[in-house]
Specification:
membrane; single chain; 64% helix; cell membrane; 341 residues; 4 strands; LPS_length_determ_N
Length: 341
Amino acid sequence: MKEEVSLRDLMAIIKQKMMIIISFGALGLILSAVYTFLVVTPMYDSTTQLLVNRTNDGTNNIQLNDINSNVQMINTYKDIIKGPVILDGVKEDLDLDYTVTELAEMVVIDVNQDSQVFSLTVTGPNPDEAAEIANGIAATFQSAIFDIMNVENVSIISAASVNSKPVSPVVVNNLMIGLGVGLLFGFGVALIRYAMAKTIDDYQFITQTIGWPNLGSISELNKEEQSAIVASQKQKIAAAKAVKVAETAQAANPKRIPDGEVLSVAEVQLERPRTTVESAVGQEMEKQPKKHPKQYSASHSGMNRERLGTVADMSREKIGVILQNSDDTQAVHSGNKRGKR
């Protein structure tokens, strides 16, 4: 197990395990796309703005204390808007299927610092319903605040409109997050495989880390060399099969010598294949200069013919005697067996 990993090793790991890292990145991208487009429900928002102003007492003078008082009252109004006093009335007026808690989770109130204007945003799966709920909450709050706090200092300055563009999920962000997580996970898998590897991938590890000398290397065969080796092996296999088939055929159908016929040594030599040594000797003999055969007289040749004829007759006579003796012996044995019975 390798304990120290340098920056060069990290780059080598990334280059070597690039396919694994890319595969996990693509997998993360696909999973994030499935989650974004098929699993998550798109959400739409709609926003209305309200103004908290001073009480109309017939004068046009605006005091700084009144403004500060109105700003501080906005925090109180936030709690009132998200409470059951307002949301129960909205639920009954719009005949909604949501509970008060669910409606409170759908409402978000944003307040700018030192501003008398605050925004009321409703987020839901239906853009028309979100705009309707936002306008209903603003209208209910404006009419109910006098009964609650005995003041009339809330005005609706901007009604909520339908927003057909979903605010979540953000497709680009989700896809980038999925891709990044997949790449990081793939890189982690590559590091684990590198750390758990027990094989040696580089001769430098042997020479530099272990300190052993490099005695030699075996080059990798290219495609042409591999094809040549495969073709040679196929030829050897085909030749071996052909020899085996020939031997089988010869054993099944051996050549029989007719009765009474004696093959000469020359004929036997012609019948069997020549060995490697005989072939070499034959080639050497062919290289030697040819000598003219000796001329014999007619009487000498006639005498040789008589000798060959005598030898052939003697061979035939001996063969006949041997066959006759074998027949007589077989007849005697069969007679003895009958006598015993």
